Amino acid sequence: MPHSASAKKRLRQSIVSRDRNRAIKSEIKTSVRKVLDALSKKDVPAAKEHFRTVARKADQAASAKTIHRNKAARIKSRLSARILKAAG
């Protein structure tokens, strides 16, 4: 346990940011799952719609440094490749 006042405050801050980061990452994973479910049902228009949500959330998380920018790019690249393969 922290003893100094600044260490106690830092602990409180890290708990808040950890919860926020977990929620953001969970939203991204849920959105990715929706895209993959739509693709498994051969519903390309729905997959494209969900992909826009994934791309937006991934870019926001990367700009806030919740996830690395390369991870956001990798998520978008892999999903877009799957969508193009299913569409074509």
Question: Can you walk through the features of this model?
Answer:
It is a single chain. With 88 residues, this protein is mainly alpha-helical. The chain has a single domain, classed as Methane Monooxygenase Hydroxylase, Chain G, domain 1 (Up-down Bundle), CATH 1.20.58. The chain has three helices and no strands. Helix 1 runs antiparallel to helix 2, helix 1 (5-40) packs parallel to helix 3 and helix 2 (44-63) packs antiparallel against helix 3 (69-87). The protein is elongated.
Summarize the entry for a quick read.
85% of the residues lie in helices and 0% in strands. With 88 residues, the chain is an all-alpha fold. The model has no long low-confidence stretch (mean pLDDT 97).
Characteristics:
88 residues; mainly alpha; Methane Monooxygenase Hydroxylase, Chain G, domain 1; 3 helices
